[in-house]
Design a protein that fits this description.
mainly alpha; Serine Threonine Protein Phosphatase 5, Tetratricopeptide repeat; elongated
């Protein structure tokens, strides 16, 4: 009888441990959704002490470390999650984000590619793949990725914005202008687009149109960090216009 009880107790121990691990993980998951990352980390670590082979636990731990700014610990946890489950696109996506923060873009590229292979329709992974190529000074590749994203996800605003910014850096103001106008079609309330359109028109010598968009920007975002520059530039353009008017009357 005693021997049977011992066998029963032995058999129940792994089940009890599994339940305890699941309770800790569930509590940690809930804390993570509430952005209580420090408390979540404590519960995830206790869960790991019980079961070191649960990829979801390492994934949650890695995301918490990322949000706490502990990037190396986040990478370590997410790499463990990836080894335990090679088919979770979200794990590779989060790992890619951590490598971007860690300024190791070549590693980020590999992670985002794997994430896209597992989930081809994830526009965030495609967008961040473009950012990783930018960090590698591969602007042409980044531009191609953003264009593909615009074609496959025509309402994905960040692709338009990032490609426009690259075009402006290259002083290609006309194509940048066209993209920014598409941004306003998608989101007419995106005030920064008015500023960037104004800058493009200004650079193209279309100062009257530039002033119009600068004014729209100031109406939408009078407290924006660019507001002082815009007000000064509008005054400069107004003075230049007055000089030209006076000269034409002479």
């Amino acid at each position: 009888m005693k021997e049977q009880n011992r066998k029963s107790e032995y058999m129940s121990t792994p089940i009890k441990r599994q339940k305890a691990q699941q309770i800790l993980k569930n509590k940690a998951d809930l804390l993570r959704t509430k952005c209580s990352f420090k408390e979540a980390v404590s519960n995830y670590l206790n869960s790991v002490l019980i079961d070191r082979n649960n990829p979801e636990t390492y994934f949650g731990l890695g995301v918490c470390y990322k949000n706490l700014g502990k990037i190396q610990k986040a990478i370590s946890a997410l790499e463990k999650a990836a080894k335990l489950d090679m088919n979770n696109s979200e794990t590779f996506y989060e790992l890619g984000l951590c490598h971007l923060k860690d300024e190791t873009p070549c590693k980020a590229i590999k992670c985002f590619i794997r994430s896209i292979e597992l989930e081809p329709e994830n526009p965030d992974a495609i967008y961040n793949l473009g950012l990783a190529h930018e960090q590698c000074d591969e602007q042409d590749m980044a531009m191609m990725i953003y264009q593909k994203l615009i074609e496959t996800s025509p309402t994905y605003l960040n692709a338009y914005l990032r490609k426009s910014q690259l075009l402006m850096k290259m002083e290609l103001y006309r194509p940048a202008l066209a993209l920014y106008k598409n941004v306003l079609k998608i989101n007419p309330h995106y005030s920064k687009a008015y500023f960037d359109i104004g800058v493009c028109l200004d650079k193209l010598g279309k100062q009257t149109d530039a002033k119009r968009y600068y004014h729209k920007f100031l109406e939408c975002s009078p407290q924006d960090e660019h507001a002082n520059y815009v007000m000064k530039r509008v005054n400069e353009l107004r003075k230049n216009n007055s000089k030209h008017t006076n000269l034409s009357l002479v």
